[in-house]
């Protein structure tokens, strides 16, 4: 009899896991207590996967052999507690993907900050070197779906602590931990220790054939690294000393040393600016070297990597409020992804030329994360109609400067102001770049 795999959550990771599970002969059923976005329903129908939305059929779920839980569902969820109590094994999407990856290698990147940049740069290094590689995980494309539909020899995966919470066998050949700062403590019983343990799970199944790349200048990492029985080869990166294996920066020069290979490069040649990005670049350079990529190719990649302007681009923090420019989000789906990645209370700047937008797929995320909407367009009626029942404050503004000032006024310390318009820009702006640049200029004037 086919193994019964129940999937909780109908987002990117849940639907990807459902597709892979179905392909591998499991009896798959997907359940989402909220609304499943149209594009995901379409995929579920296309692959003939049974699903429900707006409810959980408890009896059916508790009859599972295994449950794949979306990383967004916390342990304190009542249904999750019942599944645990019954002793049903819960796995994460990366665990399922790992099970069927074949001989492919995995680079897994986790950390509180810098993981998206580091992941994107490692992927860029691998692409520059001509490797058969895919970019997967927390970055927006399901690892399981990639394994099912377009398997590669190498996967570069951005991994959140929530995804690591439900691994069993998952083992990256190369693990990168960028740093650890207090984050998501609401999901870890407000114990920083639990979050730290979660991050270090990335190395728990590694063997002496694997590599662990970590920041030796990160106090939390260094305070706790001794508690874990790490079997893999340690490759630290630092700006304070000169390890003979790993990476360091001294006098504006980055050195990466792995096995017998050494590579030097001036930090002035990095396209990514800022000290935090020097750390990210060291981590990525070491990973490239571990994968056996020639130093010329790594140098090339580091010099040609573009941090993605207008795509979740961090602008600055003003009096404790972060400003993020996601002007490239010209449709609801892009804004949905942007909101999904938000971890702080959000003031959302929306609007522009509405191309017949259906905002309903955003509704659940807006309810959960958005405290106010600043509408920026010549006609904001549709935004009011869509969100007036769910968002306490909706303000109209007529240009980028007004929008930034209104959002800043509504924000408290610890909030984030996100420009992610979900609309085209040609009412008040020439194009999305112009919109993003005007937003950034207005933020800099605050």
Automatic annotation (TrEMBL):
Keyword Cell cycle: yes
Any single GO CC term annotated in Swiss-Prot or TrEMBL for this entry: cytoplasm
Residues annotated as binding ATP: 111-117
Enzyme class: ligase
Taxonomy of the source species: Bacteria, Pseudomonadati, Bacteroidota, Chitinophagia, Chitinophagales
Record-linked PANTHER family: UDP-N-ACETYLMURAMOYLALANINE--D-GLUTAMATE LIGASE
Mur ligase C-terminal domain residues: 310-423
Protein role: Cell wall formation. Catalyzes the addition of glutamate to the nucleotide precursor UDP-N-acetylmuramoyl-L-alanine (UMA).
Keyword hit for Aminoacyl-tRNA synthetase: no
UniProt name for this protein: UDP-N-acetylmuramoylalanine--D-glutamate ligase
Subcellular location: Cytoplasm
SUPFAM superfamilies, sorted: MurCD N-terminal domain, MurD-like peptide ligases, catalytic domain, MurD-like peptide ligases, peptide-binding domain
Stretches of the chain forming a coiled coil according to its record: none
GO MF annotation: an example: ATP binding
Source species: Pseudobacter ginsenosidimutans
One of the GO biological process terms: cell wall organization
Pathway this chain belongs to: Cell wall biogenesis; peptidoglycan biosynthesis
Pfam families: Mur_ligase_C, Mur_ligase_M, MurD_N
Domain of life: Bacteria
Known EC number: 6.3.2.9
Domain Mur ligase central: 109-287
Designated gene of the protein: murD
Classification via InterPro entries: Mur-like_cat_sf (IPR036565), Mur_ligase_C (IPR004101), Mur_ligase_C_dom_sf (IPR036615), Mur_ligase_cen (IPR013221), MurD (IPR005762)
Record field: catalytic activity: UDP-N-acetyl-alpha-D-muramoyl-L-alanine + D-glutamate + ATP = UDP-N-acetyl-alpha-D-muramoyl-L-alanyl-D-glutamate + ADP + phosphate + H(+)
């Amino acid at each position: 009899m086919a193994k019964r795999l129940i999937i909780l959550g109908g987002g990117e990771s849940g639907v990807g896991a459902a597709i892979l599970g179905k392909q591998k002969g499991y009896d798959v059923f997907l359940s989402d207590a909220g609304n499943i976005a149209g594009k995901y329903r379409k995929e579920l129908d296309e692959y003939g996967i049974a699903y429900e939305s707006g409810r959980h059929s408890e009896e059916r779920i508790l009859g599972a052999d295994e449950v794949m839980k979306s990383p967004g569902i916390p342990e304190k969820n009542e249904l999750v507690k019942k599944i645990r109590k019954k002793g049903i094994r819960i796995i994460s999407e990366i665990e399922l993907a790992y099970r069927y990856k074949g001989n492919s290698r995995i680079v897994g990147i986790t950390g509180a900050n810098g993981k998206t940049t580091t992941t994107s740069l490692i992927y860029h290094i691998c692409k520059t070197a001509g490797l058969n590689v895919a970019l997967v995980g927390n970055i927006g494309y399901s690892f399981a779906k990639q394994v099912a539909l377009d398997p590669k020899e190498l996967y570069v995966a951005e991994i959140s602590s929530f995804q690591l919470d439900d691994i069993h066998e998952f083992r990256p050949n190369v693990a990168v931990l960028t740093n650890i700062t207090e984050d998501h403590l609401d999901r870890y019983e407000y114990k920083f220790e639990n979050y730290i343990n979660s991050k270090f799970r990335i190395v728990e199944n590694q063997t002496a054939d694997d590599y662990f790349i970590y920041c030796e200048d990160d106090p939390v990492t260094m305070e706790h690294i001794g508690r874990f029985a790490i079997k893999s080869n340690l490759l630290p990166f630092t700006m304070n000393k000169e390890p003979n294996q790993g990476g360091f920066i001294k006098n504006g020069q980055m050195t990466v040393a792995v096995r017998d290979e050494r590579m030097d490069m001036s930090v002035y040649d990095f396209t990514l600016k800022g000290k935090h990005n020097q750390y990210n670049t060291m981590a990525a350079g070491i990973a490239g070297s571990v994968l056996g990529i020639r130093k010329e190719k790594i140098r090339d990649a580091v010099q040609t990597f573009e941090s993605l302007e207008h795509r979740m681009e961090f602008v600055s923090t003003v009096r404790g409020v972060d400003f993020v420019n996601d002007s490239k989000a010209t449709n609801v789906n892009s804004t949905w992804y942007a909101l999904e990645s938000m971890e702080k209370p959000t003031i959302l700047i929306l609007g522009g030329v509405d191309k017949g937008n259906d905002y309903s797929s955003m509704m659940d995320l807006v309810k959960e994360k958005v405290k106010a909407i600043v509408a920026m367009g010549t006609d904001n009626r549709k935004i009011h109609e869509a969100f007036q029942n769910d968002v306490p404050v909706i303000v109209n503004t007529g240009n980028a400067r007004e929008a930034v000032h209104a959002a800043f006024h509504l924000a408290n310390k610890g909030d984030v102001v996100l420009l992610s318009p979900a609309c085209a820009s040609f009412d008040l702006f020439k194009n999305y770049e112009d919109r993003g640049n005007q937003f950034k200029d207005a933020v800099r004037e605050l």
